[in-house]
Batch of 2 targets.
Target 1
Amino acid sequence: MDPECSQLLPALCAVLADPRQPVADDTCLEKLLDWFKTITEAGSSLQLLQENPCLVELLCHVLKPQGLSARVLSFSLRLAGVFAAQESCFQYLQQAELLPGLFGEAGPLGQAAWSAPTVRSGWIQGLRSLAQHPSALPFLADCGTLDTIFSLQGDSSLFVASAAGQLLVHILGLSLQGPAEGPPSPQACDWPVCAQKIVGHIEGSLRSMATPQVTQALNVLTTTFGHCHGPWMQVLWERLSPLVACLLQEDPLPAAHSLVDLLLSVARSPVLSSSDCGLWETLAQTLRRLSPAQAGPLALGILKLQDCPQALRAQAFGVLLQPLACVLTAADQAPGPPGLPEGTTGDSVTVDTLLSSKSACAGLLCQTLAHLELLQPLPQRPSPWPQAPLLGAAVTILRFCNGSAAPASDVGGRLCAILAGCVRVQRAALDFLGALAQETGPQELVTQVSAVLLEYLRSPDSSPTVLKKAFQATLRWLLSSPRAPGCCDLDPDTQLFLRELLPVLRKRLCSPCWEVRDSGLEFLTQVTRHWGGQAGFRHALLASEVPELAEQLLRDPESYVRASAVTAVGQLSSQGLHATAASPEQLGGQKESLLAELLHVLSTDSEGFPRRAAMQVFTEWLRDRHADVAEDTERFVARVLQAASRDLDWEVRAQGLELALVFLAQTLGQPSARCPYAVAAPQATPPGPLAQALRALSRVRLFEFAFRALFDCDRPVAQKSCDLLLFLRAQATPSGGLQEAEGSPDVPEAVLAVLRSLDLEGLRGALAESSDHVEKSPQSLLQDMLATVGVRGENQADCY
Amino acid sequence: MQGTAKALPGAAHGPKVRARRESGLSIPTLWVTAAWRPRKERGSQPGTPGSEGGSGALSGKSFNSSRKGVPGGTGLGSRTQGGWGPGPGRVLLQVQAPGRGRGPRAGPAWEPGLRPLHPPALGSHARPLGYAQAPPRQIRLRSVPPPPARVYLPCRRRRSRRCWTRRPAPSHRPAARDWLSAVQSEGPERGRAFPAGAPEAGAPGCACAVRAAGLVPAELRSWAVVGQAWSVGSGSAAATGWGAACRMPEIRVTPLGAGQDVGRSCILVSIGGKNVMLDCGMHMGFNDDRRFPDFSYITRNGRLTDFLDCVIISHFHLDHCGALPYFSEMVGYDGPIYMTHPTQAICPILLEDYRKIAVDKKGEANFFTSQMIKDCMKKVVAVHLHQTVQVDDELEIKAYYAGHVLGAAMFQIKVGSESVVYTGDYNMTPDRHLGAAWIDKCRPNLLITESTYATTIRDSKRCRERDFLKKVHETVERGGKVLIPVFALGRAQELCILLETFWERVNLKAPIYFSTGLTEKANHYYKLFITWTNQKIRKTFVQRNMFEFKHIKAFDRAFADNPGPMVVFATPGMLHAGQSLQIFRKWAGNEKNMVIMPGYCVQGTVGHKILSGQRKLEMEGRQVLEVKMQVEYMSFSAHADAKGIMQLVGQAEPESVLLVHGEAKKMEFLKQKIEQEFRVNCYMPANGETVTLPTSPSIPVGISLGLLKREMAQGLLPSAKKPRLLHGTLIMKDSSFQLVSSEQALKELGLAEHQLRFTCRVHLHDSRKEQETAARVYSHLKSVLKDHCVQHLPDGSVTVESILIQAAAHSEDPGTKVLLVSWTYQDEELGSYLTSLLKKGLPQAPS
């Protein structure tokens, strides 16, 4: 602890111990505790206490029933725990009888303050910090602490209840990781006292018929098996698994969700999954017992396991596919299996769930689709992957949702009625359909996919969120579509699809919903980025009115759309697909017009997003030596920098510096490929004499911009400018470059002189620190807390 | 079957029918007694938002009671368009728990395991509400003075197919959840036991409601209803953690933020099985994960999007929406987000403002990007004021004007008849550019209100404004500069209007600047959403747009060094970075200058330091900045004060109140005041604590026209003072409740009628033949019961209405005849009377 803080600490402790001095801002206490944690992690807590007796005095104050605020009480308990985490300090506080006072019956436990959840939470967190060494265990076992923790598992506060469970896990882990040689015996009497008590409590809870208690016990075990990997885990499971098995016999199954979590946690535990322990059978049994909605997460968990019997995996996959099997069966006009793995047929329970209500149906389908989406890219996914039936199911669900399906069966009809217009399911199914694009399927199905995507994109009933998903799925299918054999262009089916898609896109770009226009533009940008070079795509796009519409959207009333339009036309233009590039004779004038239009956006748009987008486009254009730019690069750069330097948005200015750096690199030579800001000797020969390059920089007013930005009130801008000038100096001064520059009468000598005189390295160091590093310092915190004392409370609650 | 419900004020008749169980068997029935009373018009008027009549509950034509179908059917029927709000009258039903009533509840008939007399088939989706072993319950409908023709029928939940409450089930019996599942999947034929006294059976408050609005013509509102139905099943299961999606007659509220706390508002509400998150704010005081609410408590319930039905954002302040992009784009919520149009438009600006500070100024990684903010905003469903938005089939929300900032709204969240109102931040007094918050008398089950100024009665705003202008004026007059750090949009515009008006009036020349181009942006939004401003601004808008300032110009960094007086609005509002801090540094050393802090500053910021009186500030590079300029704090935040909060409570008339967004001590005071004044429960949970409120959800029940007509034909029309009983059978068909005649019920359910008759033996000393005895009985009854139809049938038996009397010889005593009397429960009174009459013996026959 630095001396300034040491000096301030006694006064602060006095304030905290004084119940008449309210500590208004609870963030201060949190930050104070963070600071003490940092100090104790770095050094001796005992020494800290000895050097700052005010801290012990503060803890002693807590023992007096004097009406300390709940916040300070909670803070003190946590602080005591932080100190007692070191064994020496623990002994010291024990000897001073502080710990039993704080955490035992005599402490807050017995006071009225205990009714405040923050105090109970502080008590638990204090113990959690304290329980770091074996000597804490007798303390925990003796003071009746464990019983209190047990009862806090059912606390009215979620935070307290959860923390109590976590603490039990921690204590159990600590007590069983003792110095005992080898794994403990299964006999409980041989176990450490704390472990005996906790395990006894868990056993009691598992036998209890009260579901909350069962849930608490299962949650504790789940965390235990998730976090502890000692050899005793196996013994623990052997001891508790019969009780878990008993739970599975109960009707109804209590705490199914927690039971699933526990079984998966055990299955993932390296100690247990390798040995059998009857675990696989338990998992299989549980899969059979759970309702379709409950079984989904378990099935997914099983399929994600690395080593798991094939039969169990097959069973789990079957469970996971059940709802889709039902859908396929319901939709199937012709009898026969829907093509899913053997044994996967829509069972009646799943059908009943799907038909029971709209929310149950949507819930189960969304869950299933999300699970399969998660599973799809995993290496351990079931093989063979039933791509075709899954595609069919996704398409069918989408058709049920938009009413375009004509199910033959009664169940299908009812499903159709339930799912009609269900946005939730539509979104989930489109996501899943998009994920399936990683692999192809039978052509017939791919055609169906295209058709259903088009239906959704076309439909006036599709909500903006559904349309966004539809665009995303379409993009994924388009980009995964196969190339025509022997040529690099698109295959005929994709061409056909594109021809149908572009009019839909055109329509969507005129949507009254800005979200839809924006999604359309994002789609256009992406597809152009990937397919800009494909002749088929270029032809189709230029034949449509989409590029013109995109340009019109530069004047959209919504700033997000304007920004997306800027990006889209920038991309189109980069690929030579800009709307007006079609006619060669008008080429020059209209190119100018796009550049002018984007410059107009940069200079006049009232919102930051389109201006930022314009800067990004310009930087890209300059980097790629876009034809418009290459015509007169200096003029272009000068105009952009001039606009950027005046901009009120810091990101536009920062982007301006990015563009300046690209220009600098092109003029002077490439900076290091890895880090554009690194100061290094130039690796490439400057394209021309240095003086000439510097004059060019001067002409575009780059120096003015950079020096002004160096003292920008927004730190990232100043930082970027500093890096740019460092690069410039490195380029201009070493290895004789400077002499050459000095030799020329036109050299901006003043600039070089300024560069030499500035302590750019020092400035960069200062800027590298966050702007609030002083405010975040502990000294600042202590000062603030002390200064706040006595200040009228009115400011405190007034958030805005 | 006997049992009386506790009488409520204005109760209708007691149970009219009592069945004796002499036969040892009985039909499991649910008695419904309802009383309608004419609506007392209170509160909102038809046509005003939130005051639409109760919705017509039925769609099927046999149940759709139209006015033309019923003589004199006027009034009520015309108010039955969809929507919320009080309908024409309300009738409560209470369930008496089995065994708790006076009747012979504990008899073998109610033991689990008995098979029904006539197992109903579950075809065509129609099924009775409950089944065989369910104990009978006596239900009484009562009229409650205020609102509408809603009949509250006690039952466990409105739709047993949905998920279940998760309370601990008694150990010796299966939790009702599975019983119900069994009913659904297997049908009751298997005779699965409905546990006697099943969990929650008859628990107080477990009521579901029957809304009859629109089906009963006004003249018939005073009908009492005696319905008969299979009892409503119940289910329960224990919950793990918060809000496993359950359908239960309770509302649960858990603040993850803003519970006895200001900042990071995030309140989880579970209502009618739907889970809603109210606000998703961040805490400006932390730079780590603690700035966001701890969402792990909800992510542990499985996929967020499956678990949460929607998120509602009250307004654009970061302590209410700052965590939204994190929640939607990083934690993974992909469901709908509701906010008003102005909030949707302005939110990204504030979020961008904060992102800049968090990511680029503090160098924080793992923070949301601009793209994420946009993607998040694209998930938003923007709502209009007073527009009822259907989130799904059951959940609907509605926004009310909240004042506070542009676009701020209070939200009513409604599932069936249960509703919660969340105020967000609001202001009950109009200011220079916004109006006062308003809500109709929506009588929610719960009002969740902010309580920032729980103990403050704020002075007149005029005084504060005068004070502000005086200070600015004085500083400018002496040649000083005034810095006003503000957040991008919000109160800044209020202060701008104030200064602009003053400058105009006093004809001041000193320039006023607004930094970062927000004047233009603000203008844009205030023009766009002019309907959200107050009346004065709207009225004068055509002549003069109040947001097109004459004196306030855009600021350029170079202006800070200009000599002479000036006033500058600069962001950010807490002097923790950017332009406002830069200007502050330049001007702090001059005692002629002044900084006015119009809002709260979190610890660590320069704003906080100077407000707490620190005058020597360490800046970067160990530089010490001496603050000589004047520092003023003037709160212009637009929150309701204690008086305003009380006013709102009075306006909405909630059943309970829950305080958030305030300090515990202050809340305590307000809580007591609310409880005293309004006689309602008031809660103030800390973060993480759950408040559970039992509710009486209402379920619309249609009453068949035929049934009503039949009942009407039987006698006088009921009146407000004299309700009449109406008998019917309550059935559930295609997820809706219908009160129909028993004949129709049998038809709907595809059941054959079984008759339950009570029997009694009466011994008569009569040595004559059985036929003669029967003839004597006939003559006797014919003479005594003149108003009844007494018949002597060819087989020798005698009937009086449904009562059947047969004479038989006594097996042991030839001088005695046994009269076997049997009657249906409908004729129970007459049956009893006859029995007692016969027991007295027959008159001596003339010899």
Target 2
Amino acid sequence: MDPDAVAKAFVDHYYSTFDSNRAGLANLYQDGSMLTFEGQKILGSQNIVAKLVGLPFQQCQHNITTVDCQPSGAGGVLVFVSGTLQLAGEQHALKFSQMFHLMPTAQGSFYVLNDIFRLNYT
Amino acid sequence: MEELIDLVGKAFVDHYYHLFDNDRPALSSLYQPSSMLTFEGQKIQSIEDITAKLNQLPFDQCLHVISTIDSQPSSFTGGIVVFVSGSLQLPGEEHHLWFSQMFHLIPLLEGHFFVQNDIFRLNYG
């Protein structure tokens, strides 16, 4: 397992799904998955997807600036992302940082166990 | 009421940045041979190389001011992922630097944690 390859593939897939079909993120989370979104804690795939689908914008585009990854032990991969989030109709893009802890599934792919998202205000 | 995991995360963050800002060589006590640091994209392993990197950063004094701390239990038994954002103030510099950092903490037998994974990035405006 090459953590860099896993991280890159995951990041590409995650944000393209987010930007085109947010409900499709459901199969990246499981019942034990945790999301902390701007300090709000959400548990489980259903609740997480409900939160993301319910965000107050229809269209968005993530532009990724940096991706760092490391193996976390126990077969997991930690991914640390920074980038910008462009919302339709907004002049200025929002800056964000996000970390994922990916764990292997029985089928040989990865799901998100831990997800923490923060906007970067400067 | 704050959850236990948030208390542990906050206690670690307070301790880590206090050491960083007051006794940088002492950070070596927080890493183990398996620890990994990625500092602005540069990958570093081993306690010696990690502490050498941190001790050789091009400033003698600094002050971390923490804005946000988010913690979650990781898959590792008793493990915690901690996500931090804040600013780094260097003496003589008018503008401070904004940064984000994540730690994956793993418990040692005595109930103390060490940093298994550490990733640091400056947030450029």
